[in-house]
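Page 47, continued from p. 46.
Same chain as before, 150 aa.
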Amino acid sequence: LHFQDLVRAWYEPLWRSGVAVDFVRPDADLSSYRLVLAPSLYLIDDEGAANLTGFAERGGTLAVGFHSGMVDADCHVRLGGYPGAFRETLGVRTDELFPLLPDEQVSLTDGGTGTLWSERVRLEGAQAVTSYEDGQLTGVPAVTRNAHGS
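Result:
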């Protein structure tokens, strides 16, 4: 996993579409934004997690990528399952991680392909947008959506 490549993959489609993008800290004032992206926010302190959750509760759209919310500011694993700090906000619980090897891929039910990461996700309020179509996780949600707050 190369974090800069991951951020670029989330950023580039917006840039190509002419969408202005700011890079801000999780604890920044987010009141002027409609959309916040967190591609892989592995380590996040309680204040940052509460700020992002509050952003969603107030009507903002929060897109969170895999491996986010796993550990706190002291790099201690958050107990209770993944995605740790964002379980309730995202309405999912992950109990096993399946990083993909460089030459490995999984098909998705919407015609897409996963090439970097997969995980076993249980819906706890969220809805599946697309699921894994093959491999160990056939039928398991791969992308989800959850309404949280307003």
